[in-house]
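[Solved] Which block belongs to which protein?

Original post:
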Amino acid sequence: MSIEFIGYIAGHHSSEIHPQVGPVLQPEYVEKVARAHEEAGFDRALVAFHSNSPDSTLIASHAASVTKKLQFLIAHRPGFAAPTLAARQFATLDTFNGGRTAVHIITGGDDKELRGDGSYIGKDERYARTDEYLTVLRQEWTADKPFDFKGEYYQFEGAHSAVKTAKPIPLYFGGSSDAAIAVAGKHADVYALWGETYEQVREVVARVRAEAAKHGRQVRFSLSLRPILAATEDQAWARAERILEQAKEVAAQKGVVRKEPANEGSKRLLAAAAQGSRLDKRLWTGVAGLLGAKGNSTSLVGTAEQVAEALVDYYDLGITTFLIRGFDPLEDAIDYGRTLIPLTRQLIAQREAQVA
């Protein structure tokens, strides 16, 4: 089975070890990072969504205008635009960029952040709303005539999109609660995990597959990691320790205090971190443990060859998409293109040839 590499495009240069300098949206930076990902051989690039961030769809549109092959994964939170309208927006964008659009559905687990956009319902209700939202979204994309819909959260009469895409827009899906996995099994084309241990990944893949089977569906799986590479293993671990110290300094400058997370995905990462900072072959939880596992924050540490081998281990567990970004965002993306991405593709091709 073919694999996919997804990178990350932010509106400005920053990370846990690089404080933001300048405005939150810098078009020149977006252009530079988009071109770098395309040249590095990434299949897609994620554009994130937060309640206070620039619009992810418009960033992806601009990035598409300066690239030719790079595809995009646009993070999107259901509930703040009508699903009929969102469906037409994504279909329009996909037509303009030549079929390079995918949508990453993030329902959201932080009540405080969601209130910033006016959502006050609880987590299980949010996923029930997402279920209806995605049902309408798909129907708007595919229906050849107007349709009606009546649910608890949405009601439409004569809904219809005149714009259609040449091929279906893939839906990626994040969320680790029981309610989230139930919705993922029903709707997701790709279910996204953060960088967990082999045991945790094996468990979640089995759960999502079981939910998808209830609907006669099959789901692919994505894993998000922050690879830390160097010429030797010792140098890579030394670099990881430097990154941890830099992250401590930046957190102190910002006055960041670790808080227990509200979302299940972060709780799972912290459960892994509680087992130790180095797990399995080379999974490192240092930054996740420091900052409370805010998002994608665990790493694979080693040489490019060693990290590629660890990615193959995850491939054997059912992972076919790797969402990778570095603590030095632009420089690491370029480096991954030189070493990690081609090595991983080569190892998995060899594995598939042996199986065949």
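(Second protein starts here: sequence line, then its structure tokens.)
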Amino acid sequence: MTREGYRIAGPGGVEVLERCGVERTVARLVELAARTPEGLTVVVDSANGLLDAPLAAAGIPVLRADPPVPADGGATAEVLAGLGRSRPEVLTALPAGGWTMSGREEEIAAAERAGAPVERQLASDGRLVAGGLGAEPLVALTFDDGPHPEFTPRVLDVLHRHEAPAAFFCIGLHALAHPGVVRRIAEAGQTLGNHSWSHAYLPDLGPIGLARQLGHTRDALAEACGDDRPIRWLRPPYGGRSPELLRAVAESGLVTVLWDVDAKDWSRPGPEAVAERVLSQVRPGSVILLHDGGGDRSQTVAALPAVITGLRARGYRIVTLDALLAAA
């Protein structure tokens, strides 16, 4: 991925797909695979959490390059293609039905445990929102992985009808592809947040990679809105964090937003199950994780009215992240 969009490096050279979403990129790779008699394997790195699932669904094998191969800032399309051709033994094959970070679960959990003391300090300083730690019956709705040209507007329609605020943590590449949807979020008075450029596992990145992931997304959101409004909030993809990352994010001026209520709506369990998962987990100060992008989010849209009315029936007030942080 680059500031302009996707770069595909292969036997035929380098192809640039500017300002396009995941769907067009996957369609192009499927097209290339159909034209390649010997088959096509795609190499990504842990800074790219967008392509592996749709490629696996299309039957295209995916290999992941982990640090220190390549080094921070060095994961260009050409480098990844070269690794696939000359050093496939250093790459990890992603299993069908797995996820971008398959095989690294213990490492990720250890990094999160190590970051717990830093989290507590940042939370006390107002630089991190963990969720579920409040004394008042306040909750925040948050949506990840958009903007999506179909589902984000539908989510916004539901929020408007119910006069409910929410925060939208946007993928920079999606904001680049769908600036009009970003503008609509802002014009509706909803909160915009940074969710990295390409759904990266941020603890893998050094200063160069982190600056690109956060800076490119900040710039894409500002360009879409037509102004330089500050983006205060960051949600790390997968909730991935380490002590070093948490400190670096705080030093950049961003507030890290985690969650304590996970609807797991990405698994598409049905609208009723999505609503029940939220309502059964909620507590004062909760941050609720839902998704408006990254796949078919029709079930999330269908569940949202029941989530909002159910929260209010239980005495909760839905507020902005600013209000939740102020009440902590």
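Accepted answer:
You had them paired correctly. Confirming on the second one: The first helix runs from residue 22 to 34.
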